[in-house]
Structure formats: structure tokens, C-alpha cells
Amino acid sequence: MGRKYDFEYIIVGSGPAGTTAAKNLAKAKKRVALIEGRVFGGTNINTRDIPYATALNFSHTYHKVNSLPEFKNQDLGFSLPTAVMHQEKVVAESRKINKKSCEEAGVICLSGHANFIDQHTIAIGSKKLTAANFILATGSRTRTSMIAGTETVDYLTPETAVKIRKLPKVILVVGGGATGCEVATYFAELGTKVIIMEAARRILPREDKEVSAIVSDYLTKRLGAMVLPGYKVVALEKTKATKRVIFKCGNSEKAIRVDTIVLATGSEPRLDYGLENAGVKYNESGIIVNKFFVTSAKNIYAIGDAIGGESSTARSEYEAALLTSNLIHKAKNQASYKGFVREVNTTLGVATVGVNESDLIKRKLKYKKAIVSLNEIMAGKIYHDESGFVKILADPRGRVVGATVVSPNAGLMAEEIATFVRHNLGVLELASVPRSANEYSYAIKLAAKKLLRKK
Amino acid sequence: MEEIDENKIRKNLKIDAKGVGIASGAAEMFIENVMKELKKFLKSREIITEKDLNRFLVRELKKYNADLAYVYENRDKII
Q1: How far, in Å, are A9, A88, A308, A353, A384 from residue A392 at the CA level?
Q2: I want to staple A380 with a disulfide (CB 3.0 to 4.6 A). Which of A374, A410, A439, A447 is the partner?
Q3: Which chain A residue has its CA at the smallest distance from B64's CA?
């Protein structure tokens, strides 16, 4: 009997979710195709995690060295084109390694924009392919629809901003969330005058209030940025020489002229590939799935940014691994998102794991907390940076439920605490981990000990 | 396989725009912009279904007039 479909699985999107799913299924001897409509590797490799990490590493390093007392009165220069070229080289190599690992696993990689014709058929150009099942891992893109004038005015997005080869004198960053603050930090560290406008009452509205305050303070006092919370950008207009930005502040509407704008206004899922033809339901937040990632079409699954929620490479990879494990082993395991780390890669790094204090207050849950400021430990003096803190949260039974770290190496410190959150371990276990007193992570030990002393 | 009749689409959009109460001059202007984008969309895809076409047009119309986009999207349901 002939094969009914061309493939057992077709995966649409080659970002972290798509490639993880494709490799896992191929290794389990399924006939798998992976289709990418733009550049292989998706947002993670081409426009977000990897180029961002490279760019911010460069700007953080430059700023740190330039700020050292040992380098006082010395103006260290840099070549931005060289830095961007290095970023492009890292991206190209990552893309090559990623594609090679897919092909070596037995995945058939295809390029072209996929469009559903029906529940089992997609079209790439004039070619039709059929599959028993589909996994949609189409990711997300910058959302600009709430600001008028974006069709006629040139602007940068967080993805394109870190690729420019000439620094503007002044830059307006619209959006003071994690990405907006990161972009603002990048330019401010390299010497550009930065203005940040955020519609909410504080920047980083998802984080605890003291995080917003400390990052805002650092941006204004140490990096010379202008931080404007409560300013909502509503429209962009093109003028002869520059751009006009119209914004609302309180009840009044005002305008300023700027040369360079970055819209860091959040992301929206990519959904424009004939989902209706396949009977897949979606809304503006993303594709609608059940707890096993099944869409309204029973043979079509969706994971990662395509289903909405907080954009995260770790989450995308986790969902792909879970879904494929369920498919291969015919299991019904559900996702547990405990212990995922959320990071903001500003000069003063921010990382949150588990719940933060704002979440606990909103949910009216009882908790205990302890905060240790970095000026209480030696590392602050050794490494010339005493700004920041470690906050640990525990439930009434003494289990670690969350932590917020504002510090150099915040991400690494939070990942360590993630083990305790994910496995319901206690403050006693956290306090008993041996640590070097000269490192920032010593603040974790001190915070855990403070919590133990609280009744 | 049916050919896409751009003139028919243009005519239907003008009728809907009049029904929503948009001034004919303004409607003419943005409908032409939508048709320009439609030409690009049709060039970019070899196979297009009726649902793809509707989705595209509704998305483009929303940039100019939300009421017109709604009416166009729901024209089969509105009596």
C-alpha cells in the first residue's frame, strides 16, 4: 500500500521550538520536514537572543572598562562596524551549526513560505506537500499596530537596532519593558543620548517596583538616559528633515522631533499562513491550543511564541520537548512552567525566577521575604559595582517560591535558585549551599539565612 | 481554480464603503492603496484560497477604517 502523506510531521518554523521538535521526531525515526519561510534559525538565532547577547556583551564590556577608576580620564574608542561584523559572524555560524544538526538528525529542511490549503496540505509556492500532522512553531514579530503612521515613517525595531553601523546622537526608545530597556542600555552604554517613553507608570512594569526604581535610577544617573514613564506614543509623522513623535502625557497631547526611533512595543504571533483553511482557530494573542498543545484541528499542534504568552527561548524549547515526548511515547504529560528564569540584560542585570512579590500580593498569598543589598557583600567592592540586591521569597512552609536578582551575573544566580523553585526545595537547603564570600552569589546565602531567622 | 477578479473586489469595497457612510473621495483613495498591496500579495503567493484573500483584505482595511473592515469581514452574515 502506498504512503498516504508525504510526511508524518511537517513543522512550520525553524526557531528553537521548531528545530527541537523536528530533531526529536527525526531521532525517533519519524519522517519529518522542517519549513522556514525567512532565514533558517528563526528569531532566536537571527534577530534576537544570539545577536542581542553578542551586542550587549560588547556594549556592557565597553561601558564597564570605560567606567573603571583605573581608566579615569582615558577615552577608549571603538569601531561599531567591527562590532556588528562580529555579531553577524556569530549569527552565521550559529545558523550553520543549527541547520547541520537538523540535517544530521534526519530532518528534511525546506525553505519557502508555507500556506495551509486544508488540514493535511500546505503550499510552498506552487508546490503542495501533505502530512499526517503539523506542528506550528512560527514565532512572533514586533507589534507596531497600536501606533499610527508606522507605514510611512522609518523606524527601527529591537531586531534591527543592534545591527546599525553608525550611532545616532539621540535615540527615542518607545516601550520601557525588558526589550526596550535592553535597547536603551545598548545605545546609552555606547554614548548615545537615550530617551525612553513607557505608557505604564514605571518602566519594567512586569517586575517588582524596586526593580523598576533601581534600573530607572541607573539609566538616568549612570548612563545619562531620560526615562519618561506615563508617556504613551500614539503616532509617528514624517517631516522634511526628521520624524515627529506624537505622545499623550496625562490628558495632554504633545510632540517632539527625533532622528531615530526604536519601537520596542511588544510582540505579536505570526499567524498569516492560511490557518482558517486548516480549521485552526486563533485570536490576536495567538493560536488557541489545549493543555496538550493541540489546536482546534486535531492533527495540528502549536507551540512557542505562536500560542502567545511571554516570549522565551527556554519555554519554546521546553514545550517542543514535551510535545514530541508525548507524541513519541503516546503520553499525556502536561507542562509545568515552575522555575523558568525571566531576564532583562541591562547593565544592572535583572533576573526573576518563580513568582515575584507583585504576583504574590495580587494573588493574596502569604509569604516571607528577605532582601540583601549588594553593598552588604564584598563582591560589590571588589568588582566596583554595589548597586542591586537579591530578594528571595518563601511560602509559610519555608519552600522557595521565587526570587528576584538585580546584579551582575543575575541570570546565572537566578538559574541556580531555579533548581530550588522547580523542585520545591526549602530555604534551609538554599542557605546550606557553600559559596565563596567574594562573589555576588554570596548574597543568595545571606538572603536565605535572613529568611531562616524570620518566624 | 478561479481567477481573482480585482475589479469585482474593488467594486464590492466601494459598495461597502458607501454603506458604512465613508465619503467617496476618501474611500477611493484608501481602496486604491489596498488594491496596490493586494497586487503585491497576489504576486507573493502562487496558491491563494478565498479565506486567504479575505483575511488579507480585512487586515489591510483595518488600517484605514475599522467599520469597513468589520462589514467586509462579515458581509455574508449581515442582512
Answers
A1: 43, 38, 28, 10, 24
A2: A374
A3: A148
| Phi, psi (rounded to 5 degrees) for A176 | -110, 30
Contact A21, A303 (CB under 8 A): yes
- Of A261, A38, A268, the closest CA to residue A152 belongs to A261
- A237 within 8 A of A244, measured Cβ to Cβ: yes
Name residue A448's amino acid.
A
- Say whether B47 and A272 touch across the interface (CB within 8 A): no
Burial of A286 (0-12, 13-18, 19+ CB in 10 A): buried
Q: How far is B69 from chain A (nearest CA, A)?
A: 15
Q: Cell numbers 562596524 correspond to what residue?
A: A81
Contacts of B52 in chain A (CB under 8 A): 115, 274, 276-277
pTM: 0.89
pLDDT tens per residue, range A230-278? 999 999 998 877 899 999 998 899 999 998 999 999 889 999 999 999 9
Chain B residues touching A277 at Cβ < 8 A: 49, 51-52
- Cell numbers placing B2: 478561479
Residues in Cβ contact with A283 at an 8 Å cutoff, skipping those fewer than 6 apart: none
Q: Which residue of B has its CA nearest to A148?
A: B63
Residues B63, A151: C-beta atoms closer than 8 Å? yes
CB contact under 8 A, A125 and B46: yes
In tens, the pLDDT along A332-360 reads 999 999 999 999 999 999 999 999 999 99
pLDDT exceeds cutoff 50 at B78: yes
Residue A1 has pLDDT above 60, yes or no: no
